[in-house]
Amino acid sequence: MAAEDGRYPPSSSPKQKRLNSLCPLGSISCCHFVQFLIHGTAQSESVVIIPAFGVQLETQYRSGRVVRRFVPCNSILKPVLNECVTPVTCYWSLAWILCDEDDLMLVFEELRPPLYMLVPVWKALCAGIEGKDCEANKSDLKEQ
């Protein structure tokens, strides 16, 4: 209606002017934002257990970037499975209790694998780190 009155050209509305003032570069900035989202997301995460030495965590991103972290065996006290509950969702995560650390260290930081994928990794970590199965928590989890 405003375009018919002659106050605004047909291609620009008050809403469009507001958006242009917030984002003056328009579609160029949006393209960079989408590119950042795509390149910032993880494509895969892996855990390599090296008995008596430690564990290597690897995250591969869609941009091709690979981040590797190594955690020595002597700094890992115990691997734990956590149930994370938010107001919107509930999911499981695998974490480590580390020596001289106040916080838990997540094994899979970017992705949220389902519980049936986490349990075998948790058992392998328990066996590789401690040299035995985690018998205390085995009865709590059902095999799927």
SSE arrangement:
Elements: H1 2-5, H2 14-22, H3 27-40, E1 42-50, E2 54-61, E3 66-72, E4 76-85, E5 90-98, E6 105-106, H4 115-130, H5 135-138
Antiparallel strand pairs: 1-2, 2-3, 4-5, 5-6
Estimate the helix proportion, in percent. Answer: 25-40%
End-to-end Cα distance, whole Å, is: 61 Å
**Percent of residues in beta strands:** 25-35%
Number of helices: 5
Give the uncertain stretches in residue-range form: 132-144
What integer value in Å does the Rg equal? Answer: 24 Å
| Overall SS class | alpha+beta
Average pLDDT for all residues: 75
Short summary:
The chain is an alpha+beta fold and 144 residues long. The protein has helices spanning 2-5, 14-22, 27-40, 115-130, 135-138; strands spanning 42-50, 54-61, 66-72, 76-85, 90-98, 105-106. The protein starts with a helix and ends in a 6-residue tail after the last helix.
Structure in words:
- This protein is α+β, with helices and mostly antiparallel strands.
- The protein contains five helices and six strands, in the order αααββββββαα.
- The chain has helices at 2-5, 14-22, 27-40, 115-130, 135-138; strands spanning 42-50, 54-61, 66-72, 76-85, 90-98, 105-106.
- The longest helix is centred in the last third of the chain and has 16 residues, at 115-130.
- The N and C termini lie far apart (61 Å).
